[in-house]
User: Which sequence fits this backbone?
Protein backbone atom coordinates (compact mmCIF):
# COMPACT_ATOMS: atom_id res chain seq x y z
CA UNK A 1 0.00 0.00 0.00
CA UNK A 2 2.75 2.39 1.04
CA UNK A 3 4.75 1.47 -2.04
CA UNK A 4 1.79 2.06 -4.40
CA UNK A 5 1.17 5.44 -2.77
CA UNK A 6 4.81 6.43 -3.22
CA UNK A 7 4.73 5.41 -6.86
CA UNK A 8 1.52 7.37 -7.46
CA UNK A 9 3.00 10.50 -5.87
CA UNK A 10 6.16 10.06 -7.90
CA UNK A 11 4.21 9.69 -11.14
CA UNK A 12 2.05 12.74 -10.37
CA UNK A 13 5.09 14.88 -9.50
CA UNK A 14 6.98 13.69 -12.49
CA UNK A 15 4.02 14.33 -14.77
CA UNK A 16 4.00 17.95 -13.62
CA UNK A 17 7.70 18.19 -14.27
CA UNK A 18 7.27 16.57 -17.67
CA UNK A 19 4.53 19.00 -18.62
CA UNK A 20 6.63 21.97 -17.58
CA UNK A 21 9.59 20.59 -19.50
CA UNK A 22 7.47 19.93 -22.56
CA UNK A 23 6.13 23.49 -22.44
CA UNK A 24 9.65 24.93 -22.14
CA UNK A 25 10.88 22.61 -24.84
CA UNK A 26 8.10 23.65 -27.21
CA UNK A 27 8.75 27.32 -26.49
CA UNK A 28 12.51 26.95 -26.97
CA UNK A 29 11.97 24.91 -30.08
CA UNK A 30 9.60 27.49 -31.53
CA UNK A 31 12.04 30.32 -30.83
CA UNK A 32 14.99 28.41 -32.20
CA UNK A 33 12.95 27.26 -35.18
CA UNK A 34 11.94 30.82 -35.98
CA UNK A 35 15.58 31.96 -35.70
CA UNK A 36 16.71 29.08 -37.91
CA UNK A 37 13.94 29.78 -40.37
CA UNK A 38 14.90 33.46 -40.58
CA UNK A 39 18.57 32.62 -41.04
CA UNK A 40 17.85 29.98 -43.68
CA UNK A 41 15.46 32.22 -45.57
CA UNK A 42 17.91 35.14 -45.40
CA UNK A 43 20.76 32.98 -46.71
CA UNK A 44 18.50 31.71 -49.48
CA UNK A 45 17.54 35.23 -50.51
CA UNK A 46 21.17 36.39 -50.37
CA UNK A 47 22.54 33.66 -52.63
CA UNK A 48 19.57 33.07 -54.92
CA UNK A 49 18.36 36.59 -55.74
CA UNK A 50 19.99 39.63 -57.30
CA UNK A 51 18.15 42.05 -55.03
CA UNK A 52 15.88 44.91 -56.00
CA UNK A 53 16.78 46.87 -58.03
CA UNK A 54 19.08 44.30 -59.61
CA UNK A 55 21.91 46.85 -59.88
CA UNK A 56 21.49 48.26 -56.37
CA UNK A 57 25.26 48.16 -55.86
CA UNK A 58 25.63 51.12 -58.21
CA UNK A 59 23.64 53.30 -55.83
CA UNK A 60 23.05 51.68 -52.48
CA UNK A 61 20.48 54.34 -51.50
CA UNK A 62 18.06 52.70 -53.94
CA UNK A 63 18.24 49.33 -52.19
CA UNK A 64 14.78 47.87 -51.58
CA UNK A 65 15.57 44.18 -51.16
CA UNK A 66 18.97 42.73 -50.49
CA UNK A 67 20.54 40.08 -52.74
CA UNK A 68 24.25 39.40 -53.17
CA UNK A 69 24.44 37.49 -56.45
CA UNK A 70 24.33 38.08 -60.20
CA UNK A 71 22.73 34.68 -60.77
CA UNK A 72 21.78 31.94 -58.30
CA UNK A 73 24.85 30.91 -56.25
CA UNK A 74 27.05 33.37 -58.13
CA UNK A 75 28.26 35.84 -55.53
CA UNK A 76 29.06 39.36 -56.64
CA UNK A 77 31.99 40.74 -54.65
CA UNK A 78 30.90 44.20 -55.76
CA UNK A 79 27.56 43.76 -53.99
CA UNK A 80 29.28 42.20 -51.00
CA UNK A 81 31.62 45.19 -50.77
CA UNK A 82 28.77 47.69 -51.11
CA UNK A 83 26.89 45.99 -48.28
CA UNK A 84 30.08 46.01 -46.23
CA UNK A 85 30.51 49.70 -46.80
CA UNK A 86 26.85 50.38 -45.88
CA UNK A 87 27.28 48.46 -42.61
CA UNK A 88 30.56 50.11 -41.60
CA UNK A 89 30.60 51.86 -38.23
CA UNK A 90 31.07 55.29 -39.78
CA UNK A 91 28.13 54.80 -42.19
CA UNK A 92 25.47 52.69 -40.45
CA UNK A 93 22.80 54.94 -38.97
CA UNK A 94 24.68 58.10 -39.82
CA UNK A 95 23.26 58.96 -43.21
CA UNK A 96 19.50 59.65 -43.46
CA UNK A 97 19.65 59.12 -47.23
CA UNK A 98 20.60 55.50 -46.60
CA UNK A 99 18.13 54.77 -43.82
CA UNK A 100 15.73 52.97 -46.20
CA UNK A 101 18.56 50.77 -47.43
CA UNK A 102 19.52 49.99 -43.82
CA UNK A 103 15.92 49.07 -43.04
CA UNK A 104 15.87 46.78 -46.10
CA UNK A 105 18.91 44.99 -44.69
CA UNK A 106 17.33 44.71 -41.24
CA UNK A 107 14.08 43.43 -42.76
CA UNK A 108 15.90 40.50 -44.28
CA UNK A 109 16.97 39.39 -40.81
CA UNK A 110 13.56 39.75 -39.13
CA UNK A 111 14.07 43.46 -38.37
CA UNK A 112 17.15 42.59 -36.36
CA UNK A 113 20.68 43.93 -36.31
CA UNK A 114 22.04 40.76 -34.73
CA UNK A 115 23.48 39.27 -37.87
CA UNK A 116 26.83 38.65 -39.44
CA UNK A 117 27.69 37.68 -43.01
CA UNK A 118 31.02 35.97 -43.62
CA UNK A 119 32.81 34.63 -46.66
CA UNK A 120 34.88 31.68 -45.55
CA UNK A 121 36.86 28.71 -46.77
CA UNK A 122 34.87 25.92 -45.18
CA UNK A 123 37.74 23.46 -45.06
CA UNK A 124 39.98 25.74 -43.06
CA UNK A 125 37.26 27.85 -41.44
CA UNK A 126 39.28 30.95 -42.29
CA UNK A 127 37.77 34.17 -43.53
CA UNK A 128 38.37 34.80 -47.22
CA UNK A 129 37.24 38.40 -46.98
CA UNK A 130 36.39 40.76 -44.17
CA UNK A 131 33.02 40.00 -42.56
CA UNK A 132 29.97 42.20 -42.40
CA UNK A 133 27.81 43.16 -39.45
CA UNK A 134 26.09 46.42 -38.54
CA UNK A 135 28.63 48.98 -37.28
CA UNK A 136 31.62 46.75 -37.93
CA UNK A 137 35.03 48.22 -37.27
CA UNK A 138 38.39 46.70 -38.00
CA UNK A 139 39.81 44.91 -34.98
CA UNK A 140 36.40 44.21 -33.45
CA UNK A 141 34.09 41.20 -33.54
CA UNK A 142 30.34 40.88 -33.92
CA UNK A 143 28.05 40.07 -31.00
CA UNK A 144 27.77 36.41 -32.08
CA UNK A 145 30.57 35.31 -29.78
CA UNK A 146 28.78 36.70 -26.74
CA UNK A 147 25.40 35.21 -27.55
CA UNK A 148 24.23 31.90 -26.09
CA UNK A 149 22.14 30.99 -29.09
CA UNK A 150 23.55 31.52 -32.55
CA UNK A 151 22.18 30.02 -35.73
CA UNK A 152 24.70 29.47 -38.49
CA UNK A 153 23.73 28.78 -42.10
CA UNK A 154 26.34 28.03 -44.72
CA UNK A 155 25.86 28.12 -48.48
CA UNK A 156 28.31 27.41 -51.26
CA UNK A 157 28.83 30.12 -53.84
CA UNK A 158 30.93 30.70 -56.91
CA UNK A 159 32.63 34.09 -56.87
CA UNK A 160 31.70 35.98 -60.01
CA UNK A 161 34.55 38.39 -60.47
CA UNK A 162 37.33 35.87 -60.00
CA UNK A 163 38.33 34.23 -63.26
CA UNK A 164 41.28 31.85 -63.08
CA UNK A 165 42.38 31.57 -66.69
CA UNK A 166 45.26 29.15 -66.29
CA UNK A 167 47.06 27.48 -63.44
CA UNK A 168 49.89 25.14 -62.57
CA UNK A 169 49.56 23.61 -59.14
CA UNK A 170 52.20 22.00 -56.99
CA UNK A 171 55.39 22.99 -58.79
CA UNK A 172 57.99 21.29 -56.61
CA UNK A 173 61.50 22.64 -56.39
CA UNK A 174 63.85 19.68 -56.41
CA UNK A 175 67.62 19.70 -56.16
CA UNK A 176 69.66 20.04 -59.34
CA UNK A 177 69.33 22.56 -62.14
CA UNK A 178 66.02 24.43 -61.94
CA UNK A 179 63.22 23.44 -64.32
CA UNK A 180 61.53 25.97 -66.55
CA UNK A 181 57.73 25.89 -66.67
CA UNK A 182 55.58 27.57 -69.29
CA UNK A 183 51.99 28.72 -68.88
CA UNK A 184 50.08 29.75 -72.02
CA UNK A 185 46.94 31.84 -71.88
CA UNK A 186 44.65 33.72 -74.25
CA UNK A 187 43.64 37.37 -74.12
CA UNK A 188 40.28 37.78 -75.82
CA UNK A 189 39.28 40.70 -78.00
CA UNK A 190 38.75 43.76 -75.78
CA UNK A 191 40.21 41.91 -72.78
CA UNK A 192 43.05 44.38 -72.35
CA UNK A 193 40.71 47.31 -71.81
CA UNK A 194 37.97 45.71 -69.74
CA UNK A 195 40.03 43.46 -67.48
CA UNK A 196 43.00 43.62 -65.11
CA UNK A 197 45.50 40.75 -65.53
CA UNK A 198 47.46 39.23 -62.67
CA UNK A 199 49.98 36.53 -61.94
CA UNK A 200 49.30 35.13 -58.47
CA UNK A 201 51.63 32.79 -56.62
CA UNK A 202 50.72 30.54 -53.73
CA UNK A 203 54.05 29.44 -52.22
CA UNK A 204 54.18 26.81 -49.48
CA UNK A 205 56.46 29.01 -47.31
CA UNK A 206 56.40 32.76 -46.78
CA UNK A 207 59.59 33.30 -48.76
CA UNK A 208 60.23 29.95 -50.46
CA UNK A 209 60.69 28.62 -53.07
CA UNK A 210 62.25 31.43 -55.07
CA UNK A 211 60.26 32.09 -58.25
CA UNK A 212 61.33 34.15 -61.25
CA UNK A 213 58.85 35.01 -63.96
CA UNK A 214 59.26 36.22 -67.53
CA UNK A 215 56.20 37.54 -69.41
CA UNK A 216 55.90 36.87 -73.15
CA UNK A 217 59.60 36.07 -73.42
CA UNK A 218 61.75 33.07 -72.73
CA UNK A 219 63.93 32.64 -69.68
CA UNK A 220 67.18 34.47 -70.15
CA UNK A 221 70.44 33.39 -68.66
CA UNK A 222 71.20 37.02 -67.89
CA UNK A 223 68.32 36.75 -65.41
CA UNK A 224 66.60 39.96 -66.39
CA UNK A 225 63.36 38.60 -65.08
CA UNK A 226 60.12 40.57 -64.91
CA UNK A 227 58.96 39.42 -61.47
CA UNK A 228 60.78 37.82 -58.60
CA UNK A 229 59.37 36.14 -55.51
CA UNK A 230 60.12 37.06 -52.79
CA UNK A 231 60.22 40.71 -53.71
CA UNK A 232 63.79 41.90 -54.20
CA UNK A 233 62.97 45.48 -53.37
CA UNK A 234 63.93 46.73 -49.92
CA UNK A 235 61.09 47.05 -47.39
CA UNK A 236 59.33 50.34 -47.11
CA UNK A 237 60.73 52.70 -44.54
CA UNK A 238 59.28 52.09 -41.11
CA UNK A 239 58.21 48.50 -41.78
CA UNK A 240 59.84 45.93 -39.58
CA UNK A 241 59.55 43.18 -42.16
CA UNK A 242 59.10 43.38 -45.91
CA UNK A 243 55.68 42.40 -47.25
CA UNK A 244 55.86 39.40 -49.55
CA UNK A 245 52.63 39.74 -51.47
CA UNK A 246 52.82 37.32 -54.38
CA UNK A 247 50.44 39.22 -56.70
CA UNK A 248 51.92 40.66 -59.88
CA UNK A 249 49.98 43.08 -62.04
CA UNK A 250 50.90 42.30 -65.62
CA UNK A 251 48.20 44.65 -66.83
CA UNK A 252 46.41 46.84 -64.34
CA UNK A 253 44.08 49.79 -65.05
CA UNK A 254 45.39 49.82 -68.63
CA UNK A 255 49.04 49.97 -67.57
CA UNK A 256 51.47 47.19 -68.56
CA UNK A 257 53.96 45.48 -66.30
CA UNK A 258 53.20 47.31 -63.05
CA UNK A 259 56.04 46.63 -60.63
CA UNK A 260 58.11 44.74 -63.22
CA UNK A 261 61.87 44.79 -62.73
CA UNK A 262 62.49 46.73 -65.92
CA UNK A 263 59.86 48.56 -67.94
CA UNK A 264 62.12 48.47 -71.01
CA UNK A 265 62.40 44.69 -71.08
CA UNK A 266 58.74 44.04 -70.32
CA UNK A 267 56.80 42.61 -73.27
CA UNK A 268 53.17 43.75 -72.86
CA UNK A 269 50.18 41.44 -73.20
CA UNK A 270 48.42 41.45 -76.54
CA UNK A 271 45.15 40.02 -77.82
CA UNK A 272 45.59 36.35 -78.73
CA UNK A 273 48.17 33.93 -77.34
CA UNK A 274 50.42 35.00 -74.48
CA UNK A 275 52.62 33.06 -72.10
CA UNK A 276 54.77 33.28 -69.02
CA UNK A 277 57.90 31.29 -68.20
CA UNK A 278 58.64 30.35 -64.63
CA UNK A 279 61.90 29.32 -63.04
CA UNK A 280 61.81 27.88 -59.54
CA UNK A 281 64.91 27.81 -57.34
CA UNK A 282 65.72 27.98 -53.64
CA UNK A 283 64.46 25.57 -50.99
CA UNK A 284 62.62 22.31 -51.69
CA UNK A 285 59.12 23.74 -51.41
CA UNK A 286 56.08 23.92 -53.69
CA UNK A 287 54.33 26.78 -55.40
CA UNK A 288 51.05 27.17 -57.32
CA UNK A 289 50.96 29.69 -60.16
CA UNK A 290 47.75 31.27 -61.45
CA UNK A 291 46.80 33.67 -64.23
CA UNK A 292 43.81 35.55 -62.84
CA UNK A 293 41.68 38.27 -64.36
CA UNK A 294 39.37 40.69 -62.58
CA UNK A 295 37.02 43.33 -63.95
CA UNK A 296 39.06 46.47 -64.53
CA UNK A 297 39.66 48.59 -61.43
CA UNK A 298 38.55 45.89 -58.96
CA UNK A 299 40.51 45.62 -55.69
CA UNK A 300 43.68 43.56 -56.27
CA UNK A 301 43.03 41.65 -53.05
CA UNK A 302 40.20 39.79 -54.77
CA UNK A 303 42.83 37.75 -56.61
CA UNK A 304 43.55 35.99 -53.32
CA UNK A 305 39.96 34.73 -53.16
CA UNK A 306 39.25 31.37 -54.70
CA UNK A 307 36.75 30.77 -57.47
CA UNK A 308 34.24 29.66 -54.87
CA UNK A 309 33.69 29.96 -51.15
CA UNK A 310 31.08 29.55 -48.45
CA UNK A 311 28.75 32.36 -47.50
CA UNK A 312 27.99 32.02 -43.82
CA UNK A 313 25.02 33.79 -42.26
CA UNK A 314 24.97 34.06 -38.48
CA UNK A 315 21.92 35.20 -36.60
CA UNK A 316 21.47 35.44 -32.85
CA UNK A 317 19.13 36.78 -30.18
CA UNK B 1 14.65 -8.47 20.05
CA UNK B 2 14.66 -11.51 17.89
CA UNK B 3 14.74 -11.76 14.13
CA UNK B 4 11.48 -13.70 14.14
CA UNK B 5 9.53 -10.84 15.78
CA UNK B 6 10.80 -8.21 13.35
CA UNK B 7 8.53 -8.96 10.37
CA UNK B 8 8.61 -5.61 8.56
CA UNK B 9 9.65 -5.47 4.87
CA UNK B 10 8.61 -4.90 1.25
CA UNK B 11 6.78 -7.35 -0.91
CA UNK B 12 7.54 -6.96 -4.62
CA UNK B 13 4.48 -8.18 -6.42
CA UNK B 14 4.16 -8.40 -10.20
CA UNK B 15 1.96 -5.26 -10.11
CA UNK B 16 4.65 -3.28 -8.32
CA UNK B 17 7.32 -4.41 -10.78
CA UNK B 18 5.12 -3.38 -13.71
CA UNK B 19 4.42 -0.01 -12.08
CA UNK B 20 8.16 0.51 -11.59
CA UNK B 21 8.72 -0.31 -15.21
CA UNK B 22 6.12 2.23 -16.34
CA UNK B 23 7.64 4.91 -14.11
CA UNK B 24 11.08 4.21 -15.53
CA UNK B 25 9.77 4.41 -19.10
CA UNK B 26 8.06 7.75 -18.35
CA UNK B 27 11.25 9.11 -16.72
CA UNK B 28 13.43 8.00 -19.66
CA UNK B 29 10.98 9.58 -22.11
CA UNK B 30 11.00 12.90 -20.28
CA UNK B 31 14.80 12.90 -20.09
CA UNK B 32 15.05 12.17 -23.81
CA UNK B 33 12.58 14.95 -24.66
CA UNK B 34 14.76 17.42 -22.80
CA UNK B 35 17.77 16.64 -25.03
CA UNK B 36 18.64 19.08 -27.82
CA UNK B 37 19.61 16.49 -30.49
CA UNK B 38 16.34 16.73 -32.41
CA UNK B 39 16.79 20.32 -33.36
CA UNK B 40 20.44 19.94 -34.33
CA UNK B 41 19.74 16.73 -36.22
CA UNK B 42 17.23 18.42 -38.49
CA UNK B 43 19.57 21.32 -39.07
CA UNK B 44 22.36 18.89 -39.99
CA UNK B 45 20.25 17.21 -42.63
CA UNK B 46 19.18 20.55 -44.07
CA UNK B 47 22.83 21.48 -44.46
CA UNK B 48 23.58 18.24 -46.27
CA UNK B 49 20.74 18.90 -48.66
CA UNK B 50 22.04 22.41 -49.30
CA UNK B 51 25.54 21.05 -49.89
CA UNK B 52 24.20 18.76 -52.60
CA UNK B 53 22.17 21.43 -54.39
CA UNK B 54 24.70 24.25 -54.06
CA UNK B 55 27.53 22.01 -55.24
CA UNK B 56 25.76 21.10 -58.47
CA UNK B 57 24.90 24.77 -58.99
CA UNK B 58 28.50 25.89 -58.44
CA UNK B 59 29.82 23.16 -60.76
CA UNK B 60 27.37 24.32 -63.41
CA UNK B 61 28.38 27.97 -62.98
CA UNK B 62 32.07 27.16 -63.32
CA UNK B 63 31.41 25.24 -66.53
CA UNK B 64 32.75 22.02 -65.02
CA UNK B 65 29.45 20.18 -65.35
CA UNK B 66 29.40 20.73 -69.12
CA UNK B 67 33.01 19.57 -69.35
CA UNK B 68 32.24 16.40 -67.41
CA UNK B 69 29.16 15.66 -69.52
CA UNK B 70 31.18 16.22 -72.71
CA UNK B 71 33.87 13.82 -71.50
CA UNK B 72 31.17 11.23 -70.78
CA UNK B 73 29.58 11.77 -74.21
CA UNK B 74 32.95 11.25 -75.86
CA UNK B 75 33.53 8.20 -73.64
CA UNK B 76 36.60 9.68 -71.95
CA UNK B 77 35.49 8.15 -68.66
CA UNK B 78 38.84 8.55 -66.95
CA UNK B 79 38.99 12.27 -67.70
CA UNK B 80 35.40 12.68 -66.51
CA UNK B 81 36.17 10.76 -63.33
CA UNK B 82 39.33 12.74 -62.53
CA UNK B 83 37.70 16.10 -63.18
CA UNK B 84 34.62 15.20 -61.12
CA UNK B 85 36.68 13.95 -58.22
CA UNK B 86 39.05 16.92 -58.10
CA UNK B 87 36.22 19.41 -58.50
CA UNK B 88 34.02 17.88 -55.81
CA UNK B 89 36.96 17.48 -53.44
CA UNK B 90 37.73 21.18 -53.88
CA UNK B 91 34.15 22.28 -53.30
CA UNK B 92 32.95 19.99 -50.53
CA UNK B 93 34.37 19.97 -46.98
CA UNK B 94 36.60 17.00 -46.24
CA UNK B 95 34.12 15.40 -43.83
CA UNK B 96 31.47 15.27 -46.56
CA UNK B 97 31.68 12.31 -48.95
CA UNK B 98 29.94 11.97 -52.29
CA UNK B 99 28.67 9.71 -55.02
CA UNK B 100 28.30 11.40 -58.41
CA UNK B 101 26.29 9.52 -61.00
CA UNK B 102 25.59 10.34 -64.65
CA UNK B 103 22.81 8.01 -65.81
CA UNK B 104 24.33 4.55 -65.98
CA UNK B 105 27.45 5.88 -67.68
CA UNK B 106 29.55 7.24 -64.85
CA UNK B 107 29.82 6.73 -61.09
CA UNK B 108 32.44 8.57 -59.08
CA UNK B 109 33.33 8.23 -55.39
CA UNK B 110 35.98 10.28 -53.55
CA UNK B 111 38.62 7.60 -54.15
CA UNK B 112 39.15 4.28 -55.93
CA UNK B 113 38.72 2.27 -52.72
CA UNK B 114 36.62 -0.86 -53.25
CA UNK B 115 34.37 -0.42 -50.21
CA UNK B 116 32.50 2.70 -51.29
CA UNK B 117 29.41 0.77 -52.47
CA UNK B 118 29.06 -0.93 -49.09
CA UNK B 119 29.68 2.32 -47.25
CA UNK B 120 27.12 4.08 -49.40
CA UNK B 121 24.43 1.47 -48.83
CA UNK B 122 24.97 1.63 -45.06
CA UNK B 123 24.88 5.39 -44.66
CA UNK B 124 21.91 6.57 -42.61
CA UNK B 125 21.65 10.17 -43.70
CA UNK B 126 22.10 10.99 -47.37
CA UNK B 127 21.07 14.11 -49.25
CA UNK B 128 20.48 14.06 -52.99
CA UNK B 129 20.40 16.68 -55.74
CA UNK B 130 19.66 16.07 -59.40
CA UNK B 131 19.99 17.89 -62.71
CA UNK B 132 19.03 16.66 -66.13
CA UNK B 133 21.20 16.51 -69.21
CA UNK B 134 20.80 15.14 -72.71
CA UNK B 135 22.71 12.41 -74.50
CA UNK B 136 22.45 11.31 -78.12
CA UNK B 137 19.88 8.49 -78.22
CA UNK B 138 18.55 6.15 -80.86
CA UNK B 139 17.53 7.47 -84.30
CA UNK B 140 19.11 10.89 -83.73
CA UNK B 141 16.77 11.62 -80.86
CA UNK B 142 18.14 13.04 -77.66
CA UNK B 143 17.66 11.07 -74.48
CA UNK B 144 17.37 12.71 -71.08
CA UNK B 145 19.61 11.38 -68.35
CA UNK B 146 19.88 12.46 -64.71
CA UNK B 147 23.05 13.76 -63.07
CA UNK B 148 22.73 12.85 -59.43
CA UNK B 149 24.88 13.89 -56.51
CA UNK B 150 24.56 12.04 -53.19
CA UNK B 151 26.33 13.50 -50.18
CA UNK B 152 26.78 12.26 -46.64
CA UNK B 153 29.01 12.81 -43.65
CA UNK B 154 31.72 10.28 -42.95
CA UNK B 155 35.40 9.48 -43.24
CA UNK B 156 37.00 9.01 -46.62
CA UNK B 157 38.21 5.55 -47.60
CA UNK B 158 41.81 5.10 -48.64
CA UNK B 159 42.63 3.17 -51.79
CA UNK B 160 43.70 -0.44 -51.31
Assistant:
Amino acid sequence: MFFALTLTVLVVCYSGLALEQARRQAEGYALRYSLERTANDAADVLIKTVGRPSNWEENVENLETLGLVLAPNRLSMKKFEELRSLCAWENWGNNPAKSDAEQAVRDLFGNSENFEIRLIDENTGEEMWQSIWPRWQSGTTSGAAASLEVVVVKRLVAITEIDIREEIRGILRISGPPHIYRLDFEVESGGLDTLDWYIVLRPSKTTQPVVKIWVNREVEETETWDYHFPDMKPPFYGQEEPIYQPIYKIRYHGEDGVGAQSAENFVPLHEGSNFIEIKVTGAEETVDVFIIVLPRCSPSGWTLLGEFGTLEVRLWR
Amino acid sequence: MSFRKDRRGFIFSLDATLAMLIVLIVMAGVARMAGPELVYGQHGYLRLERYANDTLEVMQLRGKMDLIVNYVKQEYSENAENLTRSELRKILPTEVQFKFVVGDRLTVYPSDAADWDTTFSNVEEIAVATRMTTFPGNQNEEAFEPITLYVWRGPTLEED
